[in-house]
Structure formats: structure tokens, C-alpha cells
């Protein structure tokens, strides 16, 4: 065995389960922030979220895959009288470096004073969602399934 040059260093290294979960969580968090369509102040009002059925649908579409990669109770989306889309937002962001600040704001509608909540998302220590992981329709530079496979097989 004098011709042996040592261990084969060309072997493919498969990602660990923790790496795969961290990657998938990053994708889900980015999709969540895109679905929320936050304003310039990184916030959204409860009223706007309650009225926008498409936004609610987009958030709830994340529920199936989120259960696999995030720790959340089974009853989360079936609680009667609750806002399941908002519960899902809070469950996904619970262990992320994001703080949700809640503030009551007032506004006038048809001459009447009304109130709602403004939720501001504050990202800790310069963290921001990895939007580059989410494919954008019509954008050839967006991440594709082959890019995902390349990451997972790297």
C-alpha cells in the first residue's frame, strides 16, 4: 500500500440536519416577511392585516411546512375566535432575532374615532430576512430548486 496518498478528500459532505433546518427556517421567515408586505417603518396595522384576505391566505399557506421546521402547538391554527394568521406569524418569529413592538394608534373613519394596533418588527443586531432565498416570479437571479439542491449537497 505504498501508493496510497492518504484519505480521500473529494468526498461529498452532506449537510447536517441542523444546517438543513436553519436553511429551511430562513426561507420560511423570508417568505413570511414578503407576505406581510411591511411599510417603510417595518410595520403593519392589525386593521390592514384583518382586511387583506390575500395576505392572510399567503401567511396561512406557510402553516404546513412551518410545522415541520418550527416548534409550535398543534392547536395553534384551530383556536376558535383567534386570528390564526397572526398566531402563525408570532410562532414563526418566536425564536428569530426579531422583536415585535405593539402600539395602539387612533384614526378617523367617517367622522368617528377608531383604534387599531400597529405592529413594528425590529430586527436585532443588523439581522434581516434572507430574501435572496425566495424565488421571485420573472426574476432569473432568484434562487431555484437547483440552487437549493446545490446548498444541500455542498
Number of helices: 6
Mean pLDDT: 81
Overall, the morphology is: elongated
The portion of residues assigned to helices is 25-40%
**How would you write the strand order of the largest sheet?**
1-3-2
Domain count: 1
| Count of DSSP strands | 3
Distance between the termini: 31 Å
Percent strand equals: 15-25%
| SSE class | alpha+beta
SSE pattern, N- to C-terminal:
HEHHHHEEH
Low-pLDDT stretches are 139-146
Q: Biggest sheet, in brief?
A: 3 strands, antiparallel
- Radius of gyration using CA atoms only: 21 Å
Features:
single chain, 154 residues, alpha+beta, 39% helix, 18% strand
Description:
The chain has one domain (17-136, 143-149). It has 6 helices and 3 strands. With 154 residues, it is of the alpha+beta class. The longest helix is centred in the first third of the chain and has 20 residues, at 17-36.
Task: Explain the layout of strands and helices.
Layout: H1 17-36, E1 43-45, H2 46-51, H3 53-60, H4 63-69, H5 84-93, E2 98-109, E3 112-123, H6 145-153
Antiparallel strand pairs: 1-3, 2-3
Helix pairs in contact: 1-3, 3-5
Question: Nutshell version of this structure?
Answer:
The protein is an alpha+beta fold. The protein contains 6 helices and 3 strands.
Amino acid at each position: 500500500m505504498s501508493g496510497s496518498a492518504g484519505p480521500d478528500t473529494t468526498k461529498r459532505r452532506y449537510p447536517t440536519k441542523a444546517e438543513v433546518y436553519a436553511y429551511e427556517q430562513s426561507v420560511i421567515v423570508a417568505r413570511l416577511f414578503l407576505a406581510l408586505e411591511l411599510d417603510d417603518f417595518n410595520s403593519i396595522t392589525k386593521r390592514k392585516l384583518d382586511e387583506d384576505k390575500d395576505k392572510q391566505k399567503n401567511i396561512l399557506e406557510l402553516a404546513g411546512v412551518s410545522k415541520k421546521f418550527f416548534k409550535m402547538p398543534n392547536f395553534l391554527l384551530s383556536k376558535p375566535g383567534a386570528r390564526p394568521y397572526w398566531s402563525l406569524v408570532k410562532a414563526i418569529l418566536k425564536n428569530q432575532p426579531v422583536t415585535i413592538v405593539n402600539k395602539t394608534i387612533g384614526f378617523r373613519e367617517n367622522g368617528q374615532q377608531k383604534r387599531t394596533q400597529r405592529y413594528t418588527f425590529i430586527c436585532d443586531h443588523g439581522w434581516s430576512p434572507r430574501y435572496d432565498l425566495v424565488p421571485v416570479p420573472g426574476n432569473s437571479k432568484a434562487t431555484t430548486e437547483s440552487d437549493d439542491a446545490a446548498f444541500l449537497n455542498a
